[in-house]
Amino acid sequence: MNKITSMQKITPMLWFNNDAEEAINFYVSLFPGAKITTIMRYPDSMPGMGGKVGTVAFELFGQQFVALNGGPQFKFTEAVSFVVNCETQGEVDKYWDALLADGGQTQACGWLKDKYGLSWQITPTVLIEMINDKDKEKASRVFQAMMNMIKIDIPTLQKAYNGE
User: What is the pTM of this model?
Assistant: First the structure.
């Protein structure tokens, strides 16, 4: 038996119906440096599941996750989402467009659901800086601008911040 030596203390587990491997291959292709670390298949002795992918361990930006093909009993909800901190509008656009592709759904204020039902927040880091500004008027204008957006637009936030 191999001993796992570099396991983080808490690892998010994502429950998919039966498309965990497809979803994880998509996520790994989208985020730089992401990788699949282990694929575990159900044992041949498991009725109806023998040889099928059971779990996929993977990393996104150094964060370890595990995806499980667990069946249709549970669905993702917006109660849990993943925030992607973006430095530029180009990065916002890239992740927004890719995660919406092939059946994703937009939501308000930079939130979306991808085609697998997983919720994401595509968030420019400058938004967080602006809404935490010591100048409460600037912060309020930026917050109000964000509340009227679907995808976050940095130039519009900057105009609100500047009072334009």
Answer: 0.90
